[in-house]
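A sample copied in:

***
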Amino acid sequence: MNKCLTVLLALCLLTSCHKKAREHPPVTVEVINRMTPVKDQGKSQTCWVYAMLAAIETEHIERGDSVNLSAAYVEYMLQNEKDAPESKRGMGVTCINLIQKYGLCGYDAYRKMDADIAPPKQVFMLGAVYTPHEFARSVCAPDEYIALTSNDDEPYNQLIDVNTADNWEHNRFWNIPMDSLVAKTERAVRHRHGVCWESKGHAMAIVGLGRDTQNRRYFIMKNSWGDDDADHGLVYMTYERFQKETLAVEMTQEAYGPLTYSASK
């Protein structure tokens, strides 16, 4: 066999094995919330859309209101935002703002973003017909979600700007200590709420909790890179990694509970 071809095949096998390999010890699942099937964002930089919509989906499925939402619709509408970066990156709260502004539709109605094919102007769901704006309000009411962060260089229990290029809208986040953010996130998941998690480089929906044989605790996250891996599209993140990497978290006001002070401060 050609030597270059042999090397290429070896690299392909190594890459394939790496993709399928688990990077964590066996985890006992304590909580796993219901979710829609894992999706694949492909080469897009819109993990923040997939993560936020996945959190909304879990929120509604746990309420008994099953929805499967179109990330492609949000991607299409993002083209209308003159301040959006060419990379199409953003944050979970960006996704919420876009669906409040432009509406939303179901996944089956618009599965893949096509700049030459506009999304549908009517949404058919459970025998009813909605406009995209009406449908958006039915799955994500105005001010239903709160955006959280933890920055010990800024005052806690106040709204602050998160200094990242992905926050090109300059949305403001409720700043709380990291221990509180971990506790609030765990509580939300245990109470069957959908949660969107973000680092500086990626975003996923949190759908469960678990522990390994060494009693280390994990957040179980729904990724958007397809399900062709050993964990079928789920990611097991230790609490320690969560504390180091978390940039922001979005959850409903109900999931968070009463704010310590007025959000207007």
The CA atoms of residues 147 and 250 lie 5 Å apart.
